[in-house]
Amino acid sequence: MSEVTARIASREDGRPDLPLQAEPSARQAAPEKAPAKQATKDEGARRDDGRPTRRRWRVLPIIVTLCVAGIAAVACWLLWQTYMASPWTRDGTVRVYVVTMAPEVGGSIVELPVRDNQFVHKGDLLMKIDPRDYRVAVDLSQAAVDQAEADFQNKQSQAARRLQLTDLATTPEQKEQYVSTARMAQATIEQQKANLDRAKINLERTEIRSPVNGWVTNLLLQQGDYANTGQTSLSLVNADSYWVDGYFEETTIAPIREGDPARIWLLGYRQVIDGHVDSIARGIVVFNATPGQSGLATVNPIFTWVRLAQRVPVRVRIDHVPPDVRLVAGMTATVEIDPGPAAESRPVAGQGTSSGAGAPNGGQPGASRSGPTGPTPSPH
User: How far apart are CA 80 and CA 83, in angstroms?
Assistant: First the structure.
């Protein structure tokens, strides 16, 4: 049927008739099935060759994950060892001594040669109070001294003349009276001289000079203002007294000793500031020991299960300040201390069998009692 249909189609298309071919027998069709079986075998072989590759791709993410987890575990361990071996805290503050200047005499300010945030050297004039009244006081005191000296000379001469007279011309009581009067005149001279010295001191106090190297801060005075005696007029930041207080948890201060090197990072700078441990505070406020109205201790009855570690101030003296770093009191700092390899074997200052334990110098002989003297940062 298929052959007839093909001939009919060829006639309709105008093509010549194709010769008739006999249908292939079953023996002839058999060889055509062999290539199909061969293709099936090749496809199966290709599938078998792809299975190990897929298995390898499935195992690779697991291996990578285990490697990353191992690296993270080692990094965490190293960070923990670093944290425990080198105590550090982000709770640090830059501190400095501030000198408050208050006039010891009152009067109008006639000179104010400084401005706010200006760097001044020790001995520079900060302000001058009207000295005219105090100059008059010096002149009056000097005149009183001259008058007292003249009166003393007169009474001393009278006493000398009375002592030369006989008892017939004067009585012993009169002699003693003239001698006592001369001594009183001499005491008056000393008193007037003391008043003169005080007047001169008050005249010198009209010029207020800087006692330290530092910066004028928060200057609110103006020329012409009236300065009251004992009232703070201006403040100076002592440039030679900067230090850093690091507030370490009580669980991390065991290896810290005086003299241990320290590194400081300010919040606004990347440079490292070198320093060393100057001292460790020996006391903080205990709220449970606050006395009440009756004088007894006030104890909080609430006790939480979570106990927070107290923070102990550690004073760090600054050894070197980079040129680009500007120290400002109150800045936030991160402090890291290197206890060193012999931290456990070194004694704690102020402890042991020394009889001076608890003394201001920590009970150690030869400990310095001088105040903190840090670097003098250059004025910016």
Answer: 5
Q: Helix H segments across 230-333?
A: none
Contact 335, 88 (CB under 8 A): yes
- Measure Cα distances from 126 to 43, 59, 122, 235, 300 in Å: 100, 79, 10, 10, 51
Which residues partner with 51 through β-bridges?
none
Residues 6+ apart with CB under 8 A from 324: 269, 271
pTM (global) more than 0.70: no
Q: Which of 243, 228, 252, 267 is nearest to 338 (CA)?
A: 252
Q: Which residue has the higher pLDDT, 326 or 77?
A: 326
Distance of alpha carbon 113 from alpha carbon 210, whole angstroms: 12
Based on its alpha-carbon atoms, the radius of gyration of the chain, rounded to whole angstroms, reads 50
| Residue scoring higher pLDDT (327 or 56) | 327
Alpha helix segments (H runs only) across 15-25: none
